[in-house]
Specification:
Phosphorylase Kinase, domain 1; binds iron/sulfur cluster; Dimethylsulfoxide Reductase, domain 2; globular; 884 residues; six-stranded mixed barrel; seven-stranded mixed β-sheet; 6 domains; Rossmann fold; alpha/beta; single chain
């Protein structure tokens, strides 16, 4: 092992901000991370997730060897089997009987090789990706308006704008470093206006000058009305419209109907607030509209994207500093996937199935024997085809569709009956890998090497700084090996990601001559060393990188003009009586299905349980009390989660996070409830607009446990696990009281009859506490009560690895911290583990009046800054009390 620490410049593997990370491997093998001060996405910042990357590198639950039907195998055997099964299936049923479902977690080089194999050599378009669930509507909207899938601006525009419109994006939690850049810019220029358009009053609204709580899907009407306001308010850029666009008249005429009163009716927002927003937009030249999943994940997602773009085209506010429509992607390499054709309806290097020239060009470049002639099946349809037996062999890479696809139980059933399922992953046990015939161990972050592209078209290197563990291999290697075994050896004889990138760049430049947006001609000559040293750069890269496009027109359509797209705003979603609009999304400190962030105790402390966020008045009407359990159900399924009452939520709506799976909760897979309806243009599912009933669950008992290891939770009606320092914290509940508590607990924790289990019982109050110690350390402690258990979670998790004498054992059994250990409450600051009660005390008792004063007193909010918006909310909520 090297004795000197080695620091590598890489990128964060989570969201589409694409922050640069300095990862240092120390002499003792430990890894530390910090933000890369030179990376233009983050200039040294990292959010809570990025800051905790070093806590997610353990090999726990890693898939380290190939497996065939659960049996450990060697690579040759596993690869031969995959190649044989795919070949046989294609020979018998044709190329469209196989499919590949990838992920925005794949590096561009992995994606490139996968796409080449499926579309160029196997000859099917059936390669899609989980990016379909994330931003396919933005892709479709861009292509309709610009002719290509091009994001016109850059992150600097968000800081330079005088008006920032955030639509359907909880940037503070989902793209925290971008949020911090905006918050800092607004602090420096308080005159910069921020408008947040979101049904929920998320923490992002804490920096908003105006929040428009639109009804679900009301944003299309809002932007139709905005175009009309731009016409009547004199904000049109007539030169830009005539020189660089086409189709304005029809769009203008269609928008004319959308008066403020009509928009108010369609959105549920007051006419006064709408008029304020429109007035600001009309008068402010430097305006950026940022949008993400709240816009994309809708049956009208593509129309909504075009309704936004129409306003920017009409005012000429595009492609110049501080102006433009700006789609931010959810995943770290959603953009890279789009570049190589990772979506079923795209070819490669932004070329199109619809163009015979493009098909011919790609065929010749690859010398492809069987180039697919038509788009393949998009994610939801792909899994329908698996369900119906048309697709008989599927290869799933770096994603967990059994949890993330709408009607997730149908996706699970489809895989259960599929003839041949291959899963490449870094994780041994996921809800998806359970159904795999073959599991292939892939390289994870820190081990793999390649490039990713962030939301501002910036290509950055993701570099390895760890050895591949055991038999794990990079995805590009795995795919190439299967391709060779299928007889395509020459075309897949890659020795490094550098060679793949060189080919990818060459394809982008092939017969391009400035005709196509995706052009890396300036990077085609990179040798291995230059590739290794590649600095972040924004495509197109001809002589050099490109910050912005379209400021002077130059769209990639036949006539070089952008297209206005006339849209018909959908009726806002109005749930049937007794139903709620079900909105799904992310929380601050977790990523997707938690396979990595779930390993960090710090990240798990912020929100440790799946929840349903409900308006307090709806809760009252339903008989739901704070912290009780609720069931959400519809024809697709049913889940049980904790009730979180908050007036940030609109009445009639409920928000449930997407992260909890069958691995960490009993019944919290929210996508089992989501109806699989999709946008007609993009095929993106409407993940934010299903309907569900809500009813209170009345458990006979609630429980809370801390434990060194996972107990046997089969038969427990409700449970949710979270990683804690040195063990786990577990929330539990049961619908029936066990006849014998001692036997129930011994069984759950697998304790011998002679082990000295400590317990105290208050049977009249239905309270029972248990604890088991080994060599003075807690093996587990369990607290049972008839209502949600009032034990301090932070205190309890801190006891797991401590040594305990008789007196503290008694305290643990009683579930009570000593007077010298006040309850910090739920963790707000993940970096310094500062709880809400501590912050409230600093406000009420300590006189802290702003976030900086809290930082000075408690350090909270002074590292990654992800919690600053929440701290501000806590200060605002408690300031009154402090002043009394
Ligand atoms: S904002 Fe956070 S999660 Fe996103 S790339 Fe940056 S550090 Fe990673």
């Amino acid at each position: 092992m090297s004795r000197t620490p080695r620091t590598v410049k890489t990128t964060c593997p989570y969201c589409g901000v694409g922050c640069g990370v300095l990862a240092t491997r120390h002499a003792d093998g430990k890894v530390t991370v910090k933000g890369d001060p030179d990376h233009p996405a983050n200039y040294g910042r990292l959010c809570s997730k990025g800051s905790a990357l070093d806590e997610t590198l353990s090999l726990d639950n890693r898939l380290l060897y190939p497996e065939i039907r659960g049996r450990r195998a060697v690579w040759d055997e596993a690869l031969n089997l995959v190649a044989k099964k795919f070949t046989e299936t294609i020979e018998k049923y044709g190329p469209d009987s196989v499919a590949l479902y990838g992920s925005g977690q794949l590096l561009t080089e992995d994606y490139y090789v996968a796409n080449k194999l499926m579309k160029g050599f196997i000859g099917t378009g059936n390669m899609d990706t989980n990016s379909r669930l994330c931003m396919a509507s933005s892709v479709a909207g861009h292509k309709r308006a610009f002719g290509t899938d091009t994001v016109p601006g850059c992150y600097e525009d968000l800081e330079q704008a005088d008006l920032l419109v955030l639509v359907g994006t909880n940037l503070a939690w989902c793209h925290p470093v971008l949020y911090q850049r905006i918050a800092t810019a607004k602090e420096a220029r308080p005159e910069m206006k921020v408008v947040v358009i979101d049904p929920r009053r998320t923490v992002t609204t804490d920096i908003a000058d105006l929040h428009l709580p639109v009804a679900a899907d009301g944003d299309a009407a809002l932007f139709a009305g905005l175009l009309s306001a731009c016409v009547s308010g004199g904000a049109l850029d007539h030169d830009y419209i005539s020189d660089h666009t086409d189709g304005f008249t029809e769009v203008r005429d269609r928008a004319r109907d959308w008066t403020i009163d009509k928009v108010a009716k369609a959105t549920g927002v007051s006419a006064r607030d709408i008029a304020t927003f429109y007035g600001w937009f009309v008068r402010t030249e430097k305006a950026v509209t940022i949008y993400s999943q709240g816009v994309n994940q809708s049956v009208a997602g593509t129309d909504k994207v075009n309704a936004i773009i129409n306003c920017h085209l009409a005012t000429g506010r595009i492609g110049s500093p501080g102006m433009g429509p700006f789609s931010v992607t959810g995943q770290p390499n959603a953009m890279g996937g789009r570049e190589v054709g990772g979506l079923a309806n795209m070819l490669a290097a932004h070329m199109d199935f619809a163009s015979e020239d493009d098909r011919d060009r790609v065929r010749r470049f690859w010398d492809a024997p069987a180039l697919a002639e038509k788009p393949g099946l998009k994610a939801v349809d792909m899994f329908r085809a698996i369900e119906e037996g048309q697709i008989k062999a599927v290869w799933i890479m770096a994603t967990n569709p059994v949890d993330s696809l709408p009607e997730a139980d149908r996706a699970r059933a489809a895989l259960a009956k599929c003839d041949f399922v291959v899963v490449s992953d870094i994780i041994a046990k996921t809800d998806t890998s359970e159904w795999a015939h073959v599991r292939l161990p892939a390289a994870g972050w820190g081990e793999k090497d390649g490039t990713v592209t962030n939301s501002e078209r910036r290509i950055s290197r993701q570099r390895a700084f760890l050895k591949l563990p055991e038999a794990a291999k990079p995805d590009w290697w795995i795919i190439s090996e299967v391709a060779k075994r299928m007889g395509f050896g020459e075309a897949f004889d890659y020795r490094s990601p550098a060679e793949i990138f060189a080919e990818h760049a060459a394809l982008s430049a092939f017969e391009n001559n400035g005709q196509r947006d995706f052009d890396l001609s300036g990077l085609t000559g990179l040798d291995a060393k230059a590739y290794d040293e590649l600095v972040p750069v924004q495509w197109p890269v001809r002589e050099e990188g490109t910050k912005r496009l379209f400021g002077e027109g130059g769209y990639f359509t036949a006539d070089g003009k952008a297209r206005f797209v006339a849209v018909t705003p959908p009726e806002p979603v109005t749930p049937a009586p007794g139903q709620f609009v079900l909105n799904t999304g992310r929380v601050r400190d977790h990523w997707h299905t938690m396979t990595r962030t779930g390993k960090s105790a710090r990240l798990s402390a912020h929100i440790a349980e799946p929840f349903a966020e409900l308006h307090p008045e709806d809760a009252l009407a339903l008989g739901v009390t704070p912290a009780s359990l609720v069931r959400l159900s519809n024809d697709n399924g049913s889940i049980i989660v904790r009730a979180l009452l908050s007036d940030r939520q609109q009445r009639g709506s409920v928000f449930v996070p997407m992260h909890w799976t069958g691995q960490n909760a009993a019944q919290a897979r929210v996508d089992t409830l989501v109806t699989a309806i999709t946008d007609p243009f993009s095929g993106q599912p409407a993940l934010k607009m299903s309907e569900a009933r809500i009813s209170p669950v009345t458990p006979a008992w609630y429980g809370f446990a801390v434990a060194r290891q996972k107990p046997d939770l089969a038969g427990v009606d409700y449970w949710a696990l979270a990683t804690a320092e040195s063990g786990l914290r577990i929330e539990l509940a049961g619908l029936e009281t066990p006849a014998d508590w001692d036997a129930f607990v011994r069984n759950m924790f697998n304790i011998d009859a002679d082990a000295s289990l400590l317990s105290v019982h208050d049977s009249r109050a239905n309270k029972h506490n248990f604890a088991l110690f080994e060599d003075g350390e807690v093996v587990f402690a369990l607290f049972i009560a008839p209502t949600p258990v009032p034990v301090s979670r932070q205190w309890a998790v801190g006891q797991i690895a401590e040594q305990h004498e008789d007196q503290t054992r008694a305290r643990i059994l009683a579930g009570r911290p000593g007077a010298d250990m006040p309850d910090a409450g739920a963790i707000v600051c993940a970096c310094y583990q500062v709880g809400i009660n501590t912050i409230v005390e600093a406000v009420v008792g300590g006189g802290c009046a702003n976030v900086d004063q809290i930082g000075a007193a408690l350090k909270a909010g002074t590292n990654c800054g992800s919690c600053r918006a929440e701290i501000k909310g806590i200060i605002d909520a408690n300031r009154l009390q402090a002043a009394e």
